[in-house]
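Good morning,

Attaching, inline, the backbone tokens for the sequence recovery test we're adding to the shared suite. The designed sequence is right after.
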């Protein structure tokens, strides 16, 4: 029986998923798919890991969930201690939710509550970046500049200021990539000053842009320069590490690579690796202190905040990652994976850029390598490649719109951290063959 109609990823008629094992998924017809993108960059330790499943089962046999206003739990307490420790003690508070959008929503609300608690209720405005994606709830969508995904909701979104993306492959006209940190920090400062620093609450960004950019790591020096501007004007910095974080980029916190600690950080996908939905928002002591002393608690969260079985899943996933040294493996093997992918794709003129960090790698396709002009939007090249790969048994994550919100073709690879060397090689081989077939 055929599945429901889908509208993306180049897959028209969805097959029915029945089983997952390690880096592979199987549909009802017995067809096997190698999960080259960890779904949407979620599956940090692959599918159906017996240790994670056993930990969830143990928790379910005791109790599935204790409501956060009535109970704490060992799973929640141990996961909180583990995550705060993985962040090197830079964060003091962690607030759970069930999706990346909710984690971003909490991050925005914590920033607002922080300023309200400090007696600065005029600080309400958010600054975000072009070519960004922060989620589908109205607040998270408001700070996202993904034109296609915003279109139906324009008019009801928050009034947000957008500053330029930090993309060394597509810098603004006349700007050298090395000048991006200086130029973009100046733009942020101008935006804050034009709006009035007394009205600006926070600047939100993805340390490595995911779906809206096709894996674009912040250039060296950019985050520190942006943070210096924020500090000067008492504007909080929010790092959205929902896609790039929790080890995927080769350091547990992505911004550890940049030597920066954002005031507030959102994490989700890889935290519990897709076993049960789990997300979290972390904030530093100075962000939390006025909130806790003025209001007693964070005014955010939902019924399922800190869901016990989800925390048990997160704890098991993080335990496995730590014991098997998987973040270190991602850092080491990621660089080799990217090099091998770049050389496999080098023969295609249409491959403009291969970039990323750790097991978070993007490929950008261009109609002209010199001008970097994108393919016509109607060609839907990334979805064509994604669809061909899927039919051939490889899951990747095609994205469109990275150039101007509408055109531009990129593709994300984000394998499980424990994908074997042979599986990584198979991802490259299958993707190369899909690219070759799509480009004729
Ligand atoms: C950077 C980033 N932030 C937030 C989100 C929203 O997460 P979710 O889809 O779990 O709500 C996503 C989802 O892809 C994301 O990539």
């Amino acid at each position: 029986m055929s599945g429901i109609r889908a509208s993306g990823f180049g897959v028209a008629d969805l097959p029915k998923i029945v089983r997952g094992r390690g880096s592979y998924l199987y549909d009802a017809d017995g067809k096997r798919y190698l999960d080259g993108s960890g779904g949407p960059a979620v599956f940090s330790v692959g599918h159906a890991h017996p240790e994670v499943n056993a930990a969830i089962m143990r928790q379910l046999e005791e109790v599935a969930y204790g409501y956060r206003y009535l109970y704490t739990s060992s799973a929640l307490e141990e996961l909180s201690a583990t995550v705060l420790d993985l962040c090197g003690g830079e964060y003091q508070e962690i607030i759970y939710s069930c999706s990346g959008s909710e984690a971003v929503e909490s991050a925005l609300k914590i920033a607002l509550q922080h300023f309200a608690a400090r007696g600065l209720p005029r600080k309400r405005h958010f600054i975000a970046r072009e070519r960004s994606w922060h989620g589908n709830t109205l607040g998270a969508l408001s700070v996202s500049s993904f034109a296609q995904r915003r279109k139906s909701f324009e008019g009801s979104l928050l009034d947000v200021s957008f500053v330029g993306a930090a993309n060394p492959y597509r810098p603004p006209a006349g700007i050298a990539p090395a000048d991006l940190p200086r130029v973009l920090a100046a733009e942020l400062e101008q935006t804050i000053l034009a709006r009035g620093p007394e009205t600006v609450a926070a600047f939100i960004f993805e340390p490595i842009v995911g779906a809206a950019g096709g894996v674009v790591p912040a250039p060296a020096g950019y985050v520190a320069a942006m943070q210096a501007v924020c500090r000067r004007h008492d504007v909080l910095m929010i790092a959205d590490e929902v896609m790039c974080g929790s080890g995927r980029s080769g350091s547990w916190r992505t911004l550890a690579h940049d030597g920066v600690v954002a005031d507030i950080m959102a994490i989700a996908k890889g935290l519990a690796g897709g076993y049960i939905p789990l997300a979290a928002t972390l904030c530093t002591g100075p962000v939390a202190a006025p909130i806790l002393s003025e209001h007693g608690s964070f005014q955010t969260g939902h019924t399922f905040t800190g869901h016990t079985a989800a925390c048990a899943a997160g704890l098991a996933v993080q335990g496995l990652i730590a014991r098997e040294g998987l973040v270190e493996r991602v850092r080491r093997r990621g660089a080799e994976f990217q090099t091998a992918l770049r050389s496999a794709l080098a023969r295609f003129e249409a491959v403009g850029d291969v970039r990323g960090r750790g097991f978070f790698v993007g490929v950008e396709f261009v109609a002209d390598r010199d001008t970097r002009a994108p393919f016509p939007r109607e060609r839907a090249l990334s979805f064509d490649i994604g669809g061909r790969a899927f039919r051939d048994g490889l899951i990747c994550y095609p994205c469109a719109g990275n150039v101007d919100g509408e055109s531009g073709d990129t593709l994300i690879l984000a394998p499980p951290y424990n994908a074997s060397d042979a599986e990584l090689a198979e991802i490259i081989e299958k993707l190369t063959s899909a690219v070759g077939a799509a480009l004729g």
